[in-house]
Specification:
about 15% helix; about 100 residues
Length: about 100
């Protein structure tokens, strides 16, 4: 039916390659190399019962000892209370964007 052209070869695998296969093992290289081992639980550490020490506790700190508190003094005002107003007047200058033009 194809004339001089032979039919295309099938890409389906042949049965002769499958015939020799037996049952596959379920062991991978990871399982064979890394065998599981039995885990032994570590004994728990039981802490001793708390017994408070006898005597008085000093609640002072080194900060309090080194830096004694003092009364806060009122701050002197540095800035003058009133600011002098600048007199409004005409400014007689030429701005840079007008003064530096190469062509007039």
């Amino acid at each position: 039916t194809y004339g001089n052209v032979p039919p295309p070869q099938s890409l389906k695998p042949k049965q002769e390659f499958r015939a020799g296969r037996g049952k596959m093992e379920g062991i991978t290289t990871f399982k064979s190399d890394y065998r599981p081992y039995e885990i032994v639980k570590q004994p728990r550490h039981v802490p001793e019962e708390y017994k408070p020490k006898q005597g008085e506790i000093d609640l002072g700190t080194t900060y309090k000892r080194d830096f004694n508190s003092y009364k806060v003094q009122p701050v002197a005002i540095v800035r003058p209370l009133e600011r002098r107003r600048v007199k409004q007047g005409k400014v007689d200058t030429v701005p840079t964007y007008k003064g530096n033009l190469p062509f007039k």
